[in-house]
Amino acid sequence: MYYETLILGLVMGCIYSATALGVNIIYGIMQIVNWAHGSILMIAMFIVYGATVLLGINPYLTLLIAVPVMFAFGYAFQDIVIRPLYLRERADSNPVGLLLCTAGLGIALENIMLMIFKSTPRSVSMDISLTYISIGFGRKLSLVKLIGAGIALLVFAIMWFYMNRTYPGKALRATAQDREAAQLMGINVLRYYNIAFGIGCALCAVAGVIFATFYTITPSVGTTIGSKAFIILVLGGKGSVGGCLLAGLIIGLVEAFGGLFFDSYTGQMLCFVIFALVLFLKPNGLFGKKV
Amino acid sequence: MNTSKKSTIVRLAALAAALAFVLVLAECLNSYYLQIIIYIFMFAYFASAWNILSGFAGQFSLGHAIFIGIGAYTSTILYVQYGISPWIGMLAGGLLAALVGVIIGFPCFKLKSTYFTLTTIALANILLLLVQNTRKLGSIKINGARGIQIPAVSGNSLAAMQFVDKKYYLYVILGMLIVVLAVCQWIKSSKMGYQLAAVANNQDAAESLCVNSRALKLKAMAISAFFCAAGGTFYAQVILFCNPARLFAESLSDKLAIVAMLGGKATVFGPTVGAVIVESISQFASARFAGTQGLNLAIYGIMLIVCIRFFPDGILPILQKLVRRLVARLRSKGETTK
Predict the structure, then answer these.
(1) Among A32, A93, A273, A291, which would you mutate to test the B interface (most chain B Cβ atoms within 10 Å of its Cβ)?
(2) Is the ipTM of this complex over 0.95?
């Protein structure tokens, strides 16, 4: 019983942290809380649904469609809307305009999808949707969730490698640490901001593909998943890839065990309680560096 | 007569004209349009109350549904289970919300900008889940996610704050709006308003000039929470139903912020202008295209992006500039004809 909950919590934790990674990168580099995150994830889920239904391809292969599309979308949105705002608000001590701007994007996307697709729940079915595999001690777990967790971990590895070992990743981190100094070193800061936003949205798309394989797809699904991403963002501390993963695992476990000991409402509520406590006690997150 | 006195008189006359216009409108519209106008004024009221904390004091809250919900639930429980008039419940709910606001504000105001906003969202979500999950609190019935129905009274009853004729609701909310606007105007022109503006602009600088920022913010929070809760009571009396999904919803908190930001944050009349523009567009859209779910909210989102991108200070300053230009042109014309 506990064993099964533990594994389920860990698996869901991996998936949740992949969801949060996109927001975390954007927040870590640009200090913008991307409120449209959940809606972008929802759009990615609809892309997966559309591709599987219309083209009949495997949901996992839709990564090749969803990721570039969302990257382009993020790049363009940052370039057209956010960049001028960002330049204007840099001097402001309370930059809420950007927060509301992304919130507006989220509301617009969610409701445009609601207009087009109505609130009918949809789901993607695969051959392996109902396959359960043994995880030891006579317990079983859904295969798609395990594959999802695998993809999530792979994404974490790739992102870690990208941020720490490649030139663009290092440039991104340099921009996050000190804008002016990075500019003096010949880094085109604004272009890297576009890339950062693009990567954030592309990561949302990956999370969307993972969720689409086992979650019901509705236009309002983004809010449910998105709020978890924000909890993980705060818990993990900004700009820390490892912290994001650990925070995701904590939230996954809290939700699973809260659901086991009390009920699913309480499990969800406990996540928010932890969120509020961390905000009070350690506003930089459990694993974040001091700013 | 000096110009500042003149402009105050002109402003008061414009307000009186607007008020008279609304009152005349109330007489000749049917209940459907009255309902829309009531909603417009209700959101103007909520957004103005939100503006006291988030505009004047610069503490951007996205959890004001907490206070609306507390106000609605307090008065409803008092009325349904103890037979106490909603008017007293309104005061009780307001005081309770102000207390909750101070309790929330005490630890939260040490957080900086974005973190404060995130905390308010988290708190609103916690409260939503708590209320959805609580059937009974001691002997008080809360009914969880199902909510509380307010028994309808026949006719127009002032004591029960229930009216069959919708125009009385309009009078009530209009009175409440005028009170909150007067309070806003008073805050803005008093010493407190200047201190709040200083804290909103640069807290460290304000504190170095002996402004007690925390006490000020707590005061703003208490006032804002009180008015939001009183509005919550009105909201519950209009829909005669109290359910957590509507009253503690994140979308409600967002709406207050959107309306106030669009109209003009930290101005006295900005939220009202915002509510008139945003609500009438979204109500019209949802009435005209009733079959298309989500259209009015999609318009919201797009308006928000466009507005923040192109007029970050809101619509009110632009209107003021237009009026000023118009007045200047008229005056110069008058002088040339002389």
Answers:
(1) A93
(2) no
